[in-house]
Amino acid sequence: MRTRAAVAVEAGKPLEVMEVNLEGPKAGEVLVEIKATGICHTDEFTLSGADPEGLFPAILGHEGAGVVLEVGPGVTSLKPGDHVIPLYTPECRQCEYCLSGKTNLCQAIRTTQGKGLMPDGTTRFSMLDGTPILHYMGCSTFSNHTVLPEIALAKVRPDAPFDKICYIGCGVTTGIGAVINTAKVEIGSRAIVFGLGGIGLNVIQGLRLAGADQIVGVDLNPAKVEMAKRFGMTDFVNPRDVSGDMVAHLVELTKGGADYTFDATGNVQVMRTALEAAHKGWGESIIIGVAPAGAEISTRPFQLVTGRVWKGTAFGGAKGRTDVPKIVDWYMDGKIEIDPMITHTLSLDEINKGFDLMHNGESIRAVVVY
Ligand code: NAD
Ligand code: DAO
Ligand code: ZN
């Protein structure tokens, strides 16, 4: 079939909206009509060329929601008409990683997904002249139609709005999951969140859900304050307003250091501050941000010797097929909020505007509605 997609032709160039060819689903695969997709910082990271694993030409986008149109041979858990959210972290429930119960990093299709290919080693997308186009994070939601492996789709309730629940495909789940699955924050905790963007705000609402007493937000952009307060931030620190040592300031503000700190900036200096602002003896610091290629983190080992713990999280530690439908229910039941974070809605033709809004710090989430 033919469909319309925003193609990342090469790094550092705007996306080009064009008609592309899409082959139907092969064994174990599913054809999905994408109804809405968020634009995440990670798409920007890859498009900019800063992602060492970025491949081109490709169809980016990994934060979508849509409807199953057709299933390939052997697909048993989905049927045409089902509403789904694509998963860049699949859940096969059979691999060593899935069965370990210790991680959400299913490895069933890791190798081919990392190469921009379907599990059989081929791509379903091509340009009208036949040039192959690669998949991205196994999702490629910047296309009106896409093909995914069955294990990379979460079936969700049909009454949930696509233009809101697409955000559960990355930002919402990553932020809330970092709090609940990775940090396992307890009621009454003190926490610091570095970076109040699309991920950090969801860390904040996760902390509120978990019953944290103090939620300190840190950002260089004061325009983020109002929204962060709305989601539960109790204190705000702009590093530019702190004249002395930032760690000492945060330790004093949290009366000895935070029980949990979260980096949602991707800046390795911030990651160090986050670790060192965690409470001596038990504080845990969770890295969510994706740092530039070649960047390294450092601290004095004594910070760990004295009980601080450094952890990282991908997709908030969520097992997609199991957890994503539950998070959709939380949204529909009013347990979590999404609507205020969708600051801009665009058409596919306007997708590059979504990247501009992100660069300028003007959007939390821009969503493309097909
Ligand atoms: P965003 O651009 O919306 O937000 C980043 C925020 O950090 C902005 O508000 C910015 O002002 C602030 N910031 C930047 N530098 C800062 C500094 N030095 N000190 C304080 N604040 C600073 O980005 P986002 O969509 O929220 O994504 C955040 C990070 O999370 C990115 O690195 C992204 O790639 C990563 N991410 C990780 C996962 C995962 O599974 N681990 C998933 C999605 C995104
Ligand atoms: O299993 O080796 C692996 C890698 C899984 C990829 C996890 C990516 C998470 C961070 C990227 C940000 C996603 C938007
Ligand atoms: Zn698996």
UniProtKB/TrEMBL annotation:
Co-factor(s)? Zn(2+)
Quote the catalytic activity from the record. Answer: a primary alcohol + NAD(+) = an aldehyde + NADH + H(+); S-(hydroxymethyl)glutathione + NADP(+) = S-formylglutathione + NADPH + H(+); S-(hydroxymethyl)glutathione + NAD(+) = S-formylglutathione + NADH + H(+); a secondary alcohol + NAD(+) = a ketone + NADH + H(+)
Q: What's the domain of life for this entry?
A: Bacteria
Q: What family is this protein classified in? A: Belongs to the zinc-containing alcohol dehydrogenase family. Class-III subfamily.
Q: Does the keyword Lipid biosynthesis apply?
A: no
Protein name as it appears in the record:
S-(hydroxymethyl)glutathione dehydrogenase
- PROSITE patterns the UniProt entry points to: ADH_ZINC
Its EC number is 1.1.1.284
Looking at the record, the residues that make up the Alcohol dehydrogenase-like N-terminal domain are: 27-115
